[in-house]
Amino acid sequence: MSKKKFMSKTLCGLLVVYALALMVSAQSVFAQGLLVSEGDRLPRSSIRPPIGTIPPRPVVPPVVDNQQIYAVKEISVDGKLTGQVAEINVSQTFVNTTNRTIETSFVFPLPYDGAIDQMTLLVSGKEYPAKLLDAKDARSTYEGIVRANRDPALLEWVGTGMFRTSVFPIPAGESRTVTLRYTQLLRSDHGVIDYMFPMSTAKYTSKPLEKISITLNIDSHDELKNVYSPTHGVDVKRSGDKRATVTFEEQNVIPRSDFRLLFDTKNGEISSRILSYRENTDEDGFFLLMTSPKIVSERNKPLPKTVVFVLDNSGSMAGQKIVQARDSLKFVLEKLNEGDMFNIVVFNSTLTTFEPELVEYDSKTKRQALDFCEGIRASGGTDINSALGVAMGMISDRSNPNYVIFLTDGQPTSGVTDEGKIVTNATDANKTKTRMFVFGVGNDVNSRLLDKLARANFGLSDYVLPEENIEAKVSSLYSRISAPVLAGAKWSIARESDGNKNLTNQVYPAGEFDLFAGEQLIMVGRYAKTGDVSVTLTGKVDGEEKSFSFDGEFVEKSRDSRFSFIERLWAVRRIGEILDQLDLKGQNNELVEELVRLSTQHGILTPYTSFLADDSTDLRDVRANARVAGERTGRLMAETSGEQATLNRSMSNMMQNAVQADSSLGRQARATENLAFRSQPPMAPMGGSMGAGAMGGYGGGGTGGVSAESRARSAPAPAPGGIPAGEVAKSRLTQPFERVQNIANQTFYYRNSQWEDPSVTAEQRKNVQVVKQFSDEYFALVSKHGRELTQFLVLDEPVLINFKGQTYLFEM
Q1: What is the pLDDT of residues 737-796, one digit of tens each?
Q2: What Cα–Cα distance (Å) separates residue 242 from each residue in 217, 219, 226, 264?
Q3: What is the CA radius of gyration of the chain?
Q4: Cis-peptide, bond into residue 129, ω within 30° of zero
């Protein structure tokens, strides 16, 4: 179907525009729909989202709220993306969680800036009539519901149209499944096709969703290259050059953000695309560079490589650890390619090698190596220095990629044991720029030593926590690096008018890299000069230098916040890099101050900066806060082993290599909470709704941190037998991650019983304009500014914010 015919057909039917002009955070809110009942507020979960296993502790029981009218049980999305046309089927199950029948209607806030056609809505298999309202008519309906139900939630959709069914009943305890089928025209920007499925209305639920599942089949006329989600950790399975299946699944979760998928098509060996974001012309902009090579086939084989597996079989590895380590080694051996060179070094107090020198991989050496694995047993001490020296000494050919995969669970106890000498010796022995991938198993490792080894040898470090599986970690890494297609690659981004000087700064990842088939590189950085740019990628194929060129643009000022996630992703990586430098090179006051500024601005909390969420912290006093952060970094980074040390360094590594802005969220929150558990009394669970905001604001995607106290203030009185408001008020936001959130690139901190914009000064507080929620003045501002303002008004607590040159306090 041509774009012209598609648009014509759409205008004859349902012309609605899809919300792709919004950022990946809480600004992207258009979703699959809600249930609206007269007199009932939309539900908010009082159950805290899971963030990984943390030490058990006493908790305050969750508050029962009889005002919660429904729960979203499950969301299922199945779609086919053909070029810019998406055919989508959505199924959403609602459960009536009250003891009464609710009379409700399904409200679908109509997206904009993209066409939707052939929309069909079924409720438990029965088609219901619905009314289509344009943005003007829908505004009065939205505002009417907000006024009547005393609930600001629907203000998120002011300025959009509405598709609303007639009223239908849901008996107490029963469920209804709403099914939507529609066809949509996707937006394309700088050659990148942009699909979004907004899930964030599902945050309005009385408990976490049992399951969210998304399956998207991409079918392209040209070769499919980059496939990237800036919001979710998706699984991408390719079938040939032109097709891919993208899947995502989560259980027992409240969505933190809308789902977004970017992909591009281009024939050729490598595709590279630049996206950029610049909010303020007085400051640097931010760019994201996606690079993906052609899928390897029999006609286009990967480069031969060298892999040396270095395995610790000291006594502490006995039991399940050595079994999993052997299995991970077997996985690598099964996945090597014909013509690869390899060897195995097993060490405790002494060394054993599979062969004295590197051997070529074929069916015979594979079988022999697998037999060698079966004889690996755990005993003795740990001589890391000798093992790495032998492994590096085996590699002498630098024309193709070389890798050492090093796995240990302990600290050096035999041979050379000094941390600095071990790093120096391994680096001196590395004559071929071999990349070392280090896996620390458990909490007894010297995590600082392992980080130093990885950084000094062009690699990465990762940590296998006690409840995690060694084989899963190692196999995941090797699956990524198994098929290199470009070695020693480097980027340059320049303008001809500037003499082709590099225009970027603070780019992550920095330095040379290898590019692998089936993988894509996600690079982020900053730029000062704008306009059309030339992107050059150089690297080696079979020892021969090759070069690829691409065109791009650094925008002078972004029209909207659709790509604002780039700035946030850059901030996550930059903070990870700062923590790494402080850990490996020692204290640096300038870096600590930058850490505090970035953490405050973006609401990104770590064990070193979690105090920013305290009521007593003056967020504007950067130097005082830097002194506190400096003390914390010095004290915590002095710990080289143990659970906290492992969590902290694992968190830092994940932040440096984050692909989505919230991809290190679980371990980041876990590291901070684990520290709080060690030093603080038991804390109550989060007393509010979900959201990346509740989790420190990563990636946005919610109106998190809605406390039970504020619901008690603004909600109707509870039914007989309900919990009195005074009891509800006891459940407060007590954890650092619960007291910070980000909405539309704006960070808020919860203090003084309200959400506060940290940019508000003491002088501005003296001239604050107080606006009462649901007042005429309130709705006048809503009418004047629309979603630009209303996205900040969906919170149940008061909000203090600088907006368009005026300081406002929106109070209850």
Answers
A1: 678 888 878 899 998 889 999 999 999 999 999 999 999 999 999 888 888 898 898 887
A2: 11, 6, 11, 11
A3: 28
A4: no
Say if strands 460-464 and 435-441 run parallel, antiparallel, or are unpaired.
parallel
Q: Is the pTM of this model over 0.85?
A: no
Whole-number Å distance between alpha carbons of 342 and 373: 14
CB 484 within 8 A of CB 515: yes
Q: CA distances (Å), 618 to each of 276, 492, 748, 758, in order? A: 33, 41, 14, 9
Report how far apart, in Å, the C-alpha atoms of 600 and of each of 583, 606, 651 are.
21, 11, 18
In the numeric block, the tokens 């309906």 are attached to 141
267 DSSP assignment:
-
CB 387 within 8 A of CB 345: yes
Q: Tell me the two tokens of residue 178.
A: 């709403």
CA 144 to each of CA 38, 593, 795: distance values in angstroms, whole numbers, following the listed order: 10, 47, 18
Task: Round to whole Å and give the CA distance between 16 and 7.
Answer: 10
Angle of helix 419-429 relative to helix 447-456, nearest 10 degrees, comes to 20
Beta bridge partners of 550: 535
Six token digits for residue 434: 């071999």
Burial 450-460 (b: 16+ CB within 10 A, else e): bbbbbbbbbbb
Tens digit of pLDDT for each residue in 537-557?
Answer: 999 887 788 899 999 999 999
Q: Is the distance from CB of 444 to CB of 411 less than 8 angstroms?
A: yes
Burial call 538-576: b when 16+ CB within 10 Å, e when fewer: bbbeeeeeeebebebebbeebeebbbbbbbbbbbbbbbb
